[in-house]
Each structure stands twice: as structure tokens, then as C-alpha cells.
């Protein structure tokens, strides 16, 4: 997953026929800060279909805004998520230029910690409550940071355009991994090459990765096929439904993950994912399960080596 913090979270499916409406519901987040306001562009959004699955934009295009706008399309009920919690979300992303679907994102829990999300995503999530559905209109440059949108998997738009995102929020839960963090090591021990160890379990739940604390990390990218699939070979630029779980190298503290029946869509276009993910996916067969240990310079460039297990579920349709 590209995570210049979390770029595009993935989702929770809900069926509704929707029409844009004025902002409502809570006006402040859990810290007391005012929620992102609505605007003319977000208030005008109308959609039909199922969020994260077959949602269509039915309102007029082009849609454009110089700053992010957030409109509550359907009220929710319940508490606001805290920084130590995650909230389920389904999302459909449209081009503001012509209304074409860029991504339908199925169910996933997304941690709402401020330091784990891009600014635009945090503004969308910090006032979310279960059952709420929102329209977010945001400039493309807010998502890409000014980089080429195509490298982030955003085809058909420029940084001067806007994106329309419709999100449906679900249950709130304790964010996995918030109870513990990787320790700082005064001295590193030599690595036993049997680590990381991976237990694939029953194949339905995410694998368990074991790495002892305070052992030397590898300097180079390491890729290991744990199970070879029988499907087509993945080429650069292919979109693949993928399950993944990742841990920090030191002690295998869970970093991120999504493991479902369908997986989430990953785009192997250069620049759309961290370099280590693309290298681990391209050239593998659909159905494969791949272990990859990613040094910081090929990952999130935050000084942390991480190990991931990827299941290449199917070709994205």
C-alpha cells in the first residue's frame, strides 16, 4: 500500500440510493476541533448504488474546489473515534473532471490516528461516526502532494483538478497495534536467518509473523514466495486484489494490514505503491503468497525496516 501516510483507505460496503444534502451531525471531533466544513461542491454531490462496490456519480460534472469540503449525506449514530481506535469505511473515488470511477474500495478498518493519515484523509475521518455517509471533494494536489497523479494510481486527472470521494463509515474498534510499540534497542544481536517466521494459519485470517526483538535487520530487499499461485503472471501496471499484513522489524509489532475474502486493490504502476511492494508483486503469479522484508529506503523512508506478507488474490476487474 502506498502510505505517504495512508493514501487511500479501503472500506465497508453499504447499499443506498443517495442524494447530496447540507452538512449535519456532529460539528466537532473528539479533541473539540471544528469539523471540516461543507461547501457548494460537496453539497451538490449525488450518487446511486453501493459504496465501495458499484457506486455511480449522478450529479453534474466537472466538480471542483480549491480546498477540501465535507458534506454529511446520511446521518450516523454513535461516538466519534479516538486516536487509539479504527473505524470501518467503504469508499468510492470519482474523477471530478468527468465523474468516472477511479477506485471502488471494499471493507477495511482504518486507524484514525493523526500521524497515520494524510491531512485530507484525517479531515475526512476525525468527525466520522458509525452509519454516517459523507461526500468529500478535495483538490488532487492535496492527495498527491504535487506529484504526478498517475504515479499514485489516479488516472485521468491533473493536480489542478478535484476528486470526489464518497465514504460510508461503520463500526469503531480498538486499533490493532496501539497497545504496544517497537522498543528502541541499545545493541543489535546477529540475525538468525530463519527469521522472519511466518505461520499462514487457516488461510482465512491474516498470517502471524514472528521476529525477535533487537536483531539486525537485512540491508537489502528480501522477497520469498511462501506459496506459488497458478494464475496469470503480474506485470507492471496491473491492478491486483491483494491481502496484506505488515510488522515492524523489531519484535514484529503490527504496522498495518487488511485480510478479507476479496482483498483490496493495489496498482503496480510505478510510484503507486512503496517500491518494496511493487518489487514483491511484479513477476509473481495470481494466487501466490509472498513475504517481503523492506528496508526504509524502499519502504516509507522513516528509518524502519518492515516485513509484509502479501496474498495476490485475483486480478482486479
TrEMBL record:
Composition skew (Basic and acidic residues), residue ranges: 64-81
Gene3D superfamilies assigned: 3.10.50.40
A GO MF label: peptidyl-prolyl cis-trans isomerase activity
Domain PPIase FKBP-type: 237-300
Catalysed reactions, semicolon-separated: [protein]-peptidylproline (omega=180) = [protein]-peptidylproline (omega=0)
Cross-referenced Pfam families: FKBP_C (PF00254)
SUPFAM superfamilies: FKBP-like
Region feature (Disordered): 61-81
Signal peptide residue numbers: 1-24
Superkingdom of origin organism: Bacteria
Record-listed E.C. numbers: 5.2.1.8
UniProt-listed PROSITE patterns: FKBP_PPIASE (PS50059), PROKAR_LIPOPROTEIN (PS51257)
Keywords (A to Z) from UniProt: Isomerase, Rotamase, Signal
Family statement: Belongs to the FKBP-type PPIase family.
Protein's name in the database: Peptidyl-prolyl cis-trans isomerase
Amino acid at each position: 500500500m502506498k502510505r505517504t501516510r495512508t493514501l487511500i483507505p479501503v472500506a465497508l460496503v453499504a447499499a443506498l440510493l443517495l442524494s447530496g444534502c447540507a452538512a449535519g451531525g456532529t460539528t466537532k471531533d473528539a479533541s473539540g476541533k471544528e469539523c471540516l466544513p461543507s461547501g457548494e461542491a460537496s453539497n451538490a454531490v449525488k450518487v446511486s448504488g453501493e459504496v465501495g462496490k458499484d457506486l455511480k456519480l449522478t450529479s453534474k460534472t466537472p466538480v471542483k474546489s480549491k480546498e477540501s469540503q465535507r458534506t454529511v449525506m446520511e446521518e450516523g449514530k454513535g461516538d466519534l473515534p479516538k486516536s487509539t481506535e479504527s473505524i470501518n469505511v467503504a469508499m468510492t473515488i470519482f474523477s471530478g473532471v468527468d465523474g468516472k470511477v477511479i477506485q471502488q474500495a471494499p471493507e477495511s478498518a482504518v486507524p484514525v490516528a493523526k500521524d497515520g493519515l494524510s491531512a485530507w484523509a484525517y479531515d475526512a475521518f476525525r468527525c466520522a461516526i458509525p452509519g454516517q455517509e459523507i461526500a468529500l471533494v478535495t483538490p488532487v494536489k492535496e492527495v498527491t502532494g504535487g506529484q504526478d497523479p498517475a504515479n499514485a494510481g489516479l488516472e485521468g486527472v491533473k493536480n489542478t483538478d478535484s476528486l470526489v470521494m464518497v465514504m460510508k463509515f461503520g463500526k469503531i474498534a480498538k486499533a490493532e497495534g496501539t497497545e504496544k510499540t517497537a522498543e528502541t534497542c541499545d545493541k543489535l544481536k546477529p540475525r538468525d536467518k530463519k527469521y522472519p517466521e511466518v505461520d499462514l494459519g487457516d488461510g482465512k485470517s491474516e498470517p502471524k509473523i514472528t521476529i525477535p526483538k533487537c536483531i539486525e535487520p537485512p540491508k537489502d530487499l528480501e522477497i520469498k514466495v511462501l506459496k506459488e499461485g497458478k494464475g496469470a503472471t503480474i506485470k507492471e501496471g496491473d491492478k491486483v486484489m491483494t491481502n496484506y499484513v505488515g510488522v515492524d522489524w523489531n519484535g514484529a509489532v503490527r504496522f498495518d494490514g487488511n485480510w478479507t475474502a476479496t482483498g483490496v486493490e493495489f496498482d503496480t504502476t510505478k510510484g503507486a505503491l512503496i517500491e518494496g511492494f511493487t518489487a514483491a508483486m511484479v513477476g509473481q503469479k495470481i494466487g501466490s503468497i509472498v513475504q517481503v522484508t523492506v528496508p526504509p529506503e524502499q519502504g516509507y523512508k522513516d528509518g524502519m525496516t518492515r516485513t509484509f506478507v502479501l496474498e495476490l488474490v485475483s486480478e482486479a476487474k
